[in-house]
Amino acid sequence: MVAGNDVELLYNNLADFIKAYHQTRFARVVNATGIIIHTNLGRSILPGSSLQRLTQAGGCYSNLEFNLDTGRRGSRYSHVEELLCELTGAEAALVVNNNAAAVLIALETLAIGKEAVVSRGQLVEIGGSFRIPDIMTRSGARLVEVGTTNRTHLRDYEKAITSETGVLLRVHCSNYRIVGFTGEVSNVDLAQLGKARGIPVMEDLGSGCFVDLSKFGLAKEPTVQEVVASGMDIVTFSGDKLLGGPQAGIIVGKKHLIDQIKENPLNRALRIDKLTLASLESVLRLYLDEVNALQEIPTLRMIAVPESVVEQRARHLLSLCKAELGTSCSLETISVQSQVGGGAMPGQNLASWAVAVQPSNMKISQLEQRLRHAPVPVIGRIANDRLLLDMRTVAEDELDMVLDGLRYVLTRQNDESAAVIPPNTEKTHADA
Ligand SMILES: *Cc1c(COP(=O)(O)O)cnc(C)c1O
Q: Residue 42: exposed, middle, or buried by beta-carbon count in 10 A (0-12, 13-18, 19+)?
């Protein structure tokens, strides 16, 4: 039964209902959270050159698995393998659907029915369903924990090695830090131990990066090249975290092991599609020149952008808003902290600037909720009863969208329009 004022409401908002019905459910948003690699908002956005390659790969036939030299069947992996070897110094490389898949197939290949030795300090949960012990169970490897939560020594690994050992595994503590009286075994030492005992050594780097980001005020993290050079046999990392490319799981390492992984039947189930391959290749090519990579790859650009540029952008948005939004809210620019996100570099912040909005005619939670339903949703964060729009993750050409969103929410006459918003039932949870 539809009550009288429901019908009125329906008529008032009919145009909105129809528009909403025809809108795609998977849509663009403006990321004003200041979290650069935001898993819930799609992690990395791609450089312009990748977008052209995506269109071509999707809209045209290609040499995906066709060798133009021989005229026979080729390998889809050949398009990026050489490039990955050149960039990382590895002997061989393979790309699968995502890093979770990379860890799964690598463990399954190296240690099915055998033992995988891991430090107790590195049994990470990335978020939702990716937990190292669970992935290990699914791979058929038996987890052997060594050391303690805060300290693990080389002798702990040595003692755990038996005839059943399939792999020594190191996992990057992506989204947490163990501080205080701590110690872990370096990749160099672990690689040496593996070599001496004839056991493959693998590192799940999580958010692998080709560029040393310590020059932008972040803590030093080993680059993929450094981890490969340390002697690790297999290194896995994501395509869409710090690398700034499409979703992918990249596996680099020793040729005889990569060859085994390539032949694993799981590889067919976990393989990447041509759109991913096209955009990944174009992103990897940008890394052939680091200066170029830092300018072109949005994830790196947002990390590297100077604070003063972000502040200018915040001032620009402030002046646009002040001119248009009148007395519907009070506004100011404030200094805030952005995060890299993506489970990379926990506890580390980048100095940034936000526009803080305090509405005069609604609650702050209403503003935040209604902005999520603007024609282009704008996602910010609430702090101290104000909505913060962090400008580190908002592009200059998105400022108009933010303004449109605020105008749509704050200055529309019919306040009842809020009723078209479905109840907020989704649970939000952090996920690297
Ligand atoms: C993010 C992460 C993963 C999962 O990578 P996806 O690309 O999201 O599948 C695995 N291991 C570590 C250490 C990570 O940080």
A: middle
Token representation of residue 49? 């050159």
CA distance 28 to 377: 8
Condensed to tens digits (0 to 9), the pLDDT of residues 272-315 reads 999 999 999 999 999 999 999 999 999 999 999 999 999 999 99
Contacts of 385 by beta carbon, 8 Å cutoff, 6+ apart: 358, 364
pLDDT value of residue 26: 93
Q: How many helices (H) and strands (E) does the chain have?
A: 17, 18
| Inside any domain, residue 385 | yes
Cα–Cα distance measured from residue 72 to residue 67, given in angstroms and rounded to the nearest whole number:
5
- Ligand 1 mean position to 340 CA, how many Å? 15
3-state secondary structure 244-265: CCCCCEEEEECHHHHHHHHHCC
Number of folded domains that form the chain: 2
Pocket test for ligand 1, best of 104, 135, 202, 204 (most atoms within 8 A of CB): 204
Terminal CA-to-CA distance of the chain, rounded, Å? 44
180 plus 251 within the same structural domain? yes
| 370 CA distance to ligand 1 middle (Å) | 32
Which atom of ligand 1 lies nearest, measured to the CA of 39?
8
User: Which whole number is the average pLDDT over 153-162?
Assistant: 97
On whether both 190 and 267 belong to a single domain, the answer is yes
Over residues 186-209, mean pLDDT = 96
CATH number for position 392: 3.90.1150.180
For ligand 1, whether the C-beta of 245 sits within 6 Å is: no
Pocket test for ligand 1, best of 99, 138, 299, 340 (most atoms within 8 A of CB): 99
Q: Is the CB of 44 under 6 A from ligand 1?
A: no
Phi, psi of 431 (to 5 degrees): -150, 125
* Torsion angle in degrees (nearest 10) through CA of 91, 96, 101, 103: 10
